[in-house]
Design goal:
179 residues, Aminopeptidase, 7 strands
């Protein structure tokens, strides 16, 4: 799967060092569930698990985001397909050097196209730390509706954080073609 600038693909063993590098960046890890540094052995385990999962089966699947021209891993998009095959949760991470260039928007948009057009999902939701204004803005740009605020929902990295909830329905995503 791809876009003009990106290739979205399954992770490979050779991706582990780059995954370790960008997930070790404190700015990238700030609002994520992992701690920096993200050691190479942990990245190797993660990549093996990512490669063993399926985008068509319930559970988590991680798409590697590869910069097409540079042939380098720049981030990932995670999808957790529900047991009913009609709903999913989405998350995304992009290396600092590739942020604010539209790559995350492009990658998440391509994944949403797959989920709604090819897999026939009804709904996709996203959740982010309320302080993560960049992620919230990305979801809003893509047409997600802010559906809620969970106050002090998550205890992570030594503090209670508020979570924002977003959702988008298939008719909303598919209507974008008519705009």
């Amino acid at each position: 799967m791809g876009t003009k600038r990106l290739i979205l693909r399954r992770f490979r063993a050779s991706d582990a060092p780059t995954l370790s590098e960008y997930r070790s960046d404190p700015a990238v890890a700030r609002y994520q569930s992992w701690e920096a540094p993200f050691e190479l052995d942990r990245a190797e385990t993660a990549v093996r698990n990512f490669a063993a999962s399926s985008p068509d089966q319930p559970g988590w699947f991680q798409y590697a985001i590869e910069h097409a021209a540079e042939r380098v891993l720049i981030g990932d998009v995670a999808v957790r397909l529900h047991e009913n095959h009609k709903q999913a949760e989405i998350g995304f991470t992009v290396a600092t050097a590739y942020q604010k260039m539209g790559f995350a928007t492009e990658a998440v948009s391509a994944v949403l196209d797959r989920l709604f057009r090819l897999q026939g999902l009804h709904r996709v939701m996203g959740e982010c730390d309320a302080r993560n204004t960049a992620s919230a803005a990305l979801m809003e740009r893509l047409g997600f509706t802010r559906e809620g605020l969970l106050r002090q929902q998550t205890f992570i990295k030594g503090e209670w954080t508020d979570d924002l909830l977003f959702g988008i329905l298939a008719p909303e995503w598919l209507a974008r073609d008519r705009d």
